[in-house]
Amino acid sequence: MKFLTATSTGFYRRAIAVLAAVVMVATMLTVAGAPKAEAANRDWLRPDANGKCDWDPVKYWVQRCDVWSASMGRTVPVQIQPAKRGGNAALYLLDGLRATERTNAWVNDVNAARLYEPHNITLVMPIGGEASFYADWDGPAKYDLTDPVNYQWETFLTKELKGYLQRQFGVSPTNNSIAGLSMGGTAAITLAGKHRDQFRQTLSYSGYLATTIPGAQTLMRLALLDAGGFNLNAMYGSIISPRRFENDPFNQIENLRGADVYISAGSGIPSPSDANYPWNLALSGAALEAVALGSTRIWDTKARALGVNFTANYPATGIHNWNQFGSQLSKTKNRVLDVMNAW
């Protein structure tokens, strides 16, 4: 029988130590590797029209990208959160009437990026478009000739941005959902009806879904003027223009057969979460939500008569504010992920 010498004993100890270190490193890579792999689609900045996108202060992997729009003759900033694992589905989130040039309200007034951070869907949040209804306008949007505004939002969202998202973020041009609040809800239903090849799902949160019924154009005219002197006549031209009717969600119902459709509006009665809301904003919010509810129910009635499938949600309370919009975003998250297969 041979006995281990001091030299051989030292060799085996060193070998065991090296093996233990290798096992430890492998274990650490296994544990840490999964999150890093999932972040791989998110941890680098994509190219944009000005060179490279920037990290957005909202965090949650959101990039701010300047996308060139030939139709508008300028770059349009878009906040984009890439899908967690490189999935090809996207959710477009459209803003309300008072959209700003600073940020999309979906990551400012509520944090959609935080809500969808764990999931395999790209969030697409265009910035700007105040009072535009995300439409292609016939002429300068403002009465102020020193501040002409060229709105070609439909072209941008359905042609120009779509191509950019496919090239840089791997988003399929045919695997998209679109949602919006108020003005954005109106546009979400309209754009989904007109571009069924692009949008498989559409969601309206307190949108105005019957814009050509008697009185609706007057209300829109007043709203656009109040928002910043925008000229309703420049949107579609004549009040009898076919484009005005084509861009009414009420007239897109038939085109939505086969799509997943969700509509909602509150009652206009303040909820408990609105208790500390300023009284003047609560009054205007109640009135705006009541109008949204009325137009949404009109859309609902026609869709049922035509046999078009959809889901409606009418909370017993809720006014036209971010308590209402945010709650609907959370309520429909699982629906979006299910339909888009983006968990």
Automatic annotation (TrEMBL):
Protein source organism: Corynebacterium stationis
Protein name: Esterase
Gene3D superfamilies: alpha/beta hydrolase (3.40.50.1820)
Superkingdom: Bacteria
Alphabetized Pfam families for the sequence: Esterase (PF00756)
GO MF term set: acyltransferase activity, transferring groups other than amino-acyl groups
